[in-house]
Amino acid sequence: MYKSIVMSFAAILLCASVALAHGSGSGPATKSVKLTIKGTGATAPGGNTGPDGQCVNTGDPWLDDYTGTCSVPGNCSCTEVSATISGSNLKTVSNFYITDDEGVDPVTVTPVSPGPANPSCHLNLGAFAVSDSSGNSTTLNFVGVTCEKLTGFSSKNPSGNETEETTSGGWGISSTPAPTKTISGWGTFTGTVNDNTHAASLTLNGWVTQ
């Protein structure tokens, strides 16, 4: 999903009653949240790319501690994402990085000819911060698995077309950097990436207590 130099991400809060970093003032309460993420990314600068290609110096141990644990040196890559957010009280997305480890792949058998030539799934780790109009900030970590999606296969096209990837996984609110206000949260996400246009979409669902 994140192996391309160009990707898309942006965050739009669809559940208007919840702002991840905005306190209600009425004591802790748990609410459901739903986010859809789209936008544009690029290869991270050298200062944020470790010796094995993973993300480093992001300020979040979720990514920075992956140093030395890439499945095979060179199999990791780091993407820095420029994203925007609208809706509810959330205003900005920042410090968005993704480590992709293509060496963590459960597909270990040799592809059967004339089937798909590149059956694969791989691991993704990511983190990004969201801020509200008051400047309160919350960082979200996520881990996912991205797989090639096969379409258009038939007796005349036994290999099918690998033009899209699907991804799914889980997310949670990070303790480092610490949220501006007391908050906890977690959930799941699903998404797709078009291999040709690099258009991507992620939908996060879950729960937040604040």
Task: Tell me what you see in this structure.
The protein is mostly beta strands. The protein has one domain. 2% of the residues lie in helices and 46% in strands. It contains one helix and eleven strands. It has an eleven-stranded mixed β-sheet, with no helix packed on it. The two termini are 32 Å apart.
Secondary-structure map:
Blueprint: E1 11-13, E2 30-37, E3 40-43, H1 61-64, E4 76-82, E5 85-86, E6 90-101, E7 121-132, E8 137-151, E9 161-173, E10 184-194, E11 200-209
Parallel strand pairs: 1-5
Antiparallel strand pairs: 1-2, 2-11, 3-4, 4-6, 6-7, 7-8, 8-9, 9-10, 10-11
Short description:
With 210 residues, the chain is mostly beta strands. It contains 1 helix and 11 strands. The chain has one domain.
As a percent range, the share of strand residues is: over 45%
Adjacency order of strands in the biggest sheet? 3-4-6-7-8-9-10-11-2-1-5
Low-confidence residue ranges: 2-19
CA radius of gyration is 18 Å
Average pLDDT number:
82
Specify the helix fraction band.
under 10%
Q: Quick one: overall form?
A: globular
Features:
globular; mainly beta; disordered N terminus; 210 residues; 2% helix; 11-stranded mixed sheet
